[in-house]
Amino acid sequence: xxxxPNVESLLVVDVGSVSTRAILFEVVDExxxxxxxxxxxxxxVAPYRNISEGVRMALDNLQTIxxxxxxxxxxxxxxxxxxxxxxxxxxxxxISAGEPMKxxxxxxxxxxxxxxxxxxxQSTYTRVLQTISLNDRRKTxxxxxxxxxxxxxxxxxxxGTDGGASQSVMALLESVGLACYLMPEDQRPDVLFVGxxxxxxxxxxxxxxxxxxxxxxxxxxxxxxxxxDASRTAFAHLYAQLRMKQIPGVEELKAWSSDSIYxxxxxxxxxxxxxxxVLNTKKGVMGLDVGGSATTLVTAxxxxxxxxxxxxxxxxxxxxxxxxxxxxxxxxxxxxxTELTQEQLREYLITKSxxxxxxxxxxxxxxxxxxxxxxMVQSALKLAAAEFPGGLSYLGDGNIPLVEPILATGGxxxxxxxxxxxxxxxxxxxQPVGVTTLILDQNHIAPALGAAATFNQLLAVQVxxxxxxxxxxxxxxxxxxxxxxxxxxxxxxxxxxxxxxxFEVKQGSLEVLPLPYGQTARLQLHPLHQADxxxxxxxxxxxxxxxxxxxxxxxxxxxxxxALPKDLGQRQELYRKWxxxxxxx
Amino acid sequence: xxxxxxxxLPLTLIRRERLLPQPGKVLVRTGQKVAATDxxxxxxxxxxxxxxxxxxxxxxxxxxxxxxLQCQAGDQLAQGDVIAxxxxxxxRIVRAPRDGKVVLKGEGQVLLxxxxxxxxxxxxxxxxxxELIDDRGALIETTGALIQGVWGNGRIDAGVMSVLAKKxxxxxxxxxxxxxxxxxxxxxxxxNDPDVLTMADELPLRGLVFxxxxxxxxxxxxxxxxxxxxxxxxxxxxxxxxxxxLLSTSERREVAVCAEAWDRYTGARPELVIPLPAxxxxxxxxxxxxxxxEKPVKVLxxxxxxxxxxxxxxxxxxxxxxGLRSRAAEVRFExxxxxxxxxxxxxxxx
Lengths: 585, 350
Known about the structure:
The complex is a heterodimer.
Chain A: E1 9-15, E2 19-28, E3 31-41, H1 52-66, E4 90-95, E5 101-106, H2 110-121, E6 126-132, H3 140-150, E7 154-157, H4 167-182, E8 190-193, H5 200-207, E9 212-215, H6 229-246, H7 250-256, E10 261-263, H8 264-279, E11 284-290, E12 295-301, E13 304-310, H9 329-333, H10 342-354, H11 363-384, E14 403-409, H12 411-414, H13 419-430, E15 434-441, H14 446-452, H15 457-465, E16 470-477, E17 487-495, E18 500-506, E19 509-513, E20 520-527, E21 542-547, E22 553-557, H16 568-581
Parallel strand pairs in A: 1-4, 4-10, 5-6, 5-7, 7-8, 8-9, 11-14, 14-15, 16-22
Antiparallel strand pairs in A: 1-2, 2-3, 11-12, 12-13, 15-16, 17-18, 17-20, 19-22, 20-21
Chain B: E1 2-3, E2 5-6, E3 8-19, E4 25-26, E5 33-34, E6 39-44, E7 48-53, H1 54-58, H2 62-65, E8 76-77, E9 82-87, E10 92-95, E11 100-106, E12 109-114, E13 118-122, E14 127-133, E15 137-148, E16 151-152, E17 156-163, E18 184-191, H3 194-202, E19 207-213, H4 218-223, E20 228-234, H5 241-248, E21 254-258, E22 271-275, E23 289-290, E24 296-299, E25 308-319, E26 325-333, E27 338-342, E28 346-349
Parallel strand pairs in B: 2-28, 17-18, 18-19, 19-20
Antiparallel strand pairs in B: 1-23, 3-15, 4-6, 5-14, 6-13, 7-12, 8-11, 9-10, 11-12, 14-15, 15-22, 16-20, 17-21, 21-22, 24-25, 24-28, 25-26, 26-27
């Protein structure tokens, strides 16, 4: 484990599409602690068109909250920390602001290198405009014309196992070379080559001078094996470099930092992977960030990581205006418990896309926004479903794998009316199975910990151990084919003081067992009707220790997939009941 | 806290930088007076390139093809001009399939650039060219009334304003439209009838300006030839009193509607300009502001969407009926009623 004992304070700035956050950590009683966060609107957009203003406002805000000077008279960050208590020892930054990076992906075989390259492209905030592969029937000039029209920021090239195919890869690159040559110099894309490593010199001789070239490890060194790790890191660095060129002010952030700037999603994925390593369980660890710029879904298991960033499912992006082209209106409306027509939903989405920073201030609007978030998460899950890490266990078809914990963040979750609303949103959209724990990162500090992890893993460990995250509660969700109202689970909870509670869970119910925050209890489960709670086999029970979250212990017996009544009145009643069960209103 | 700004100004200096997305030819000169619809620059934005496999057509190897090529890089060819040949007793030749310019030749291939669609950049507002931007466009300046909207269908036009909105919430129907409106720019409160939009192209109109537009009409509005400018937003949204007063008193005035899409990154917004002479020097309006007491604001969404008022109180943290905690302003509306609203749901009106 690496750490720097001289670093007592760390500032991380996260520049999102809607908000910029300045987050401060410091050693308190020999342990790193989260001290506070300052927030400001992001100023990447007009009239500022420079993120610096938003960063300074966020820092001002943080200075007010912490009573600590961070910026000097020249508006520069005070680094390192001074004897008078001002400044910080270290600075790091993450970014998700800006339009998604436009990418064209080139790969040899559609279901091999092209698929891997698209997966790599989706590991950060990108929009894949087009793909080119061997199966592409377009002629060289048609591909070239496509590239000239698409004007990508980046062309991502994969193909050929190491020492394998070369001529066909170079043939595919012919159109890329010609297109780059024909583009105005200031509009030429960067090219990242992650294919057959023996082609490096040939690729250089074809493209050098016509595009800025980058090379990273082959993502398909063999036909069977995909290796995204090294190239994912290289891609994250490249993303930050491109943002430095595209968004004024990012370079200044880089100057404050002794490390790279990371895409927020990449930094978030580091924390999820780190958690997976530390916990070292048979289950995976899942991370969910429902942000303004994208919905990010991360799953880690042992050494494997799946990271998917979906800008088309961002709650603060222009893509909201076209959401109904990707999602059926009724898929959203079924979660809405107020009278709302399709037309009103359309108006809501367009208004939110026009004012992405605006907030739902009435309970009706909150219901709509949470419904949209539910569907966005479900849509993201559907797209990522085939690409969860191998080796994970599943209960039933169509469910997410067994994961513990689920670490969730994003404005819609953090700004929920109550923890019950956040928990219900997560339960409804992710529909976890078996036994898991819901953890809420209310201050969006997980990406900051990921950004800091390069030089200080101790920080991540200690902050995670502190109360900086909100443990919503342990969730037990049996998977069973049973009729509504049938008993599906008997359980006994033994509290620290020896007191015991026995209870029975019925299919269709959502219940909470009280367990004060931070206290532990022993829970013994006895599944009925072959209910599967993830103990190895349907019907198999067992005992384990649970820790109380703000909601206690949640038993979600509503079934998978979750069915909702079509009738609005029944839906309203059910939703109110579920919310009340979790302690919300 | 930084605040978004929208301009509703009866008289101001308006400066707009108009740029091609990529280098092209600037068609105006400094000091030139332009109309909103005048082309100020043009570019062959998407030329089509053809890669001709000359060697294959001549049935020769790439190396042998070279001596039969009859063109050089940079040559301008007309359709049918000989590119290479004749070869063999059959006198095989390769001709230019279209007019175009030879960009590259070699390896038995010729790359021909053929003309694509020339895209013209319109001035967007009527005014004077005050600065040229090399190969990209120009800075246009004018004085007049400026009203910024929230949505536009990408078109630009100018014409005489016809105020059909006798009230800010006037619903525009086909019955309100007749041939006397041909060539004019219509002001109405709200539109939810697709036939109204269709008729706008049939008459034809030079523009449509609405307070609100039904969201379901967006695909039709996108296809109209005339500009469609939405001032308030989507749904039954009446024109706000300031805009209504400004525009309803502009009957028969020449106005320009630049209904370009709102680009948050460049700051380009759909807007309406009424050119007016300005006495002496006037300044361009501020684009930036912070929320402060007595600042005029407009509500962006929710129950009070579109309403105008003044900030009478600022609070660090207010809990709203949604359960949301947010920095907030107490806004006094024109009817005297006050209401706390999240700062995120307000914009400053200048």
